[in-house]
Every structure is written in structure tokens, then in C-alpha cells.
Amino acid sequence: MAFKIFATLFLVIAITGHYHARASMLDRDFYNEDCPEFEMIVAATVQSFLNRDHTVPPGLLRLVFHDAFVGGLDSSVMLNSSSGPDPPERDARPNLSLHGFEVIDAIKEQLEEVCPETVSCSDILALAARDAVALGALKDLPSPFENTTALLKKFRNRGFSAEEMVVLQGGGHSIGVGHCPFFRDRYSNFSGTAQPDPALNPTHAIFLKASCDPNGNAAVANDHGSAHLLDNHYFLNIQKGKGLFNSDQEFYSDSRTRKSIDKYAASSEKFYLDFIKAMEKMSELGVLTGSHGSIRTHCAIAK
Questions:
Q1: What is the pLDDT of residue 21?
Q2: CA atoms lying within 13 Å on the CB side of residue 155
């Protein structure tokens, strides 16, 4: 428990490594003079939403991941249909289940009152996700239907190793829920056999069937038994055949990723430290600095 507290506090610092971009430098203290209320407003707003909705942390964590993985962390996933003639990124099929936009909008509205046209939407998104995790303690996006080879290619194209891929997926699926259509075939008709996935724990298959069949659009915790904690329990579930998505469970049958599953299942300390490093690396993908970026008055509308 002591290490979990330490790791969460360290995560608070590490995930914000990318924000406050000045010219080509990355500066954590960028807003200290121009908008000293920035961090206080973000923390207070995230906490107010979290008090009403426990799904805020996984929602904001997914927003960062989906935004950064496609073109870098530029908050383009926030733009809506009024921003231009092309279909918005947030309407792409992998992004339809994203939520947390209202948290970012609420933060931006307050910041525009106290320090107008100063704080970027990307920085708000990164800091809000950081605080949410700490407090709640397109075509290129990885899909739950993809195999390990396809996922490795996508992550390597973004500069991530196999182990970084495993720790990011494990952290991302440590909290939040998965919707039944994305894993129904695993418990009922795997690969068209009319049988459950042989890699799926039989007892867990029965549980998933009972949870989903009465309501086809139901949601089940990604990390069975530890749904609301960012911890290494996800990896223990994988070892037991209780991975929710096929892409998760396949990590344990593939020699390129199995050792990483065992590593993080055996040590929460290694999981926390490696997840922190990988998230910081994720948050620095394609960061726009200096005149390359822009400050939107409303995060959903491009200037």
C-alpha cells in the first residue's frame, strides 16, 4: 500500500512531463505566471465530476490515449462536427464510446474567465487525466479484435516496445469497462465454432454470458475483481484466463509478450514504475510547441 501511494504521487508528476510547451522546450512551470490558477481549477473540476461519476478516470485516460495515439497529443479528438467539412475524429467508430468531453469543456470555460486564450486544450486534457487517475485511485487505434502481431506493429510505429505496449494496455484496462459486443464471441462463438474461446477461463465464460446475454449492450469491468483501482490485478487475470478482450488474452499465449505479463503480475512496483514511464512517453507523442500549436477558446471548435 505504501508503494501504491508513492507511485500515485509520482504519477501525478510524471504524466505532466509534456505540458507547458515553450518554443521547442517542455516546461512544467509554463503557466505559473500567466495562469497560476490552472492546476487548482483542473483538480477541483475533476474532483467535482468524480464525486458524481466514478467512470471519470478511465474516461479521461482513454481520451488521452486515443488522442495521442493518432497524430500526437493535440486534442484533435475534442473537435466536433462544427469545426470543418471533414468528419471529426471523435465520430470515428473507435471513438464513439469515449466520454469525459464535458469535464474538459467545464475546465476550459473556467480558465477562459480567469486567463483567457492562455491554456491549450491539450494541456488541459493531459492534466485532467493525470488528476483523474490520481484522485480515482480512427484506423490507427489499437482494436480489441486485433492479434498481438498487429498490435505490436501499431505500437512500434509509434516508438513503443512490446513491453511498453503490454504495460500501457494493462494500465488502460486496469480501470473502466468493456462493452459486450467487443467480446461476445469469446464466450459463445469463438472463431465461428459455437464454442467459447479455449483460452477463456470456463467459469469466467459463464459469468460473461450471464452478464451480457440479458442485455446485449451491457458493460463488464475490464479488470474483474479490481474494477476501480489502477493496479497490476489485470495481469493476474490474464494468467488465469480472465482477460476480457481477445487482444488482452493473446498476450499470454505469445512468447513476445508473455514474459511481460508474468513480470507485472509478480510485481506491482515494476508495473507502476513502467506504466509511469510509458504514459509520460505517450503524452509526449507529437507535442506541438511554440507557434506550431494554438489556443482554442472552445476545445470542440477549431479557430
A1: 43
A2: 24
The DSSP output letter for 80 is -
Is residue 165 within 8 Å of residue 257, measured between CB atoms?
Answer: yes
The catalytic position among 18, 20, 66, 224 is: 66
Residue 12 CA to its chain's centroid (Å): 15
| Amino acid type, 34 | D
Domain count, the chain: 2
- Judged by phi (left if over 0) then psi (alpha if -120 to 50, else beta), residue 245 lies in beta
Of 56, 57, 65, 125, which is closest to residue 95 (Cα–Cα)?
Answer: 65
> Can you give the pTM of this predicted structure?
0.63
pLDDT of residue 82: 56
Q: Which domain holds residue 73?
A: 2-137+284-292
d(CA 199, CA 145): 15
- Respond yes or no: is residue 20 known to be catalytic: no
Contacting residues for 130 by C-beta, under 8 A, at least 6 apart: 11, 12, 15, 16
Q: Would the pLDDT of 12 be above 50?
A: no
The CATH number given to whatever domain includes residue 240 is 1.10.420.10
pLDDT over 90 at 252, yes or no: yes
Is there a contact between 210 and 189 (Cβ–Cβ < 8 Å)? Answer: no
Q: Which long-range contacts (CB under 8 A, 24 or more apart) does 108-113 make?
A: 108/296, 108/297, 108/298, 108/299, 110/41, 110/45, 111/35, 111/37, 111/38, 111/41, 112/297
User: In a 10 Å sphere around its CB, with 0-12 CB exposed, 13-18 middle and 19+ buried, how is residue 126 labelled?
Assistant: buried
Identify the DSSP state of 137: -
- Cell numbers linked to 5: 501511494
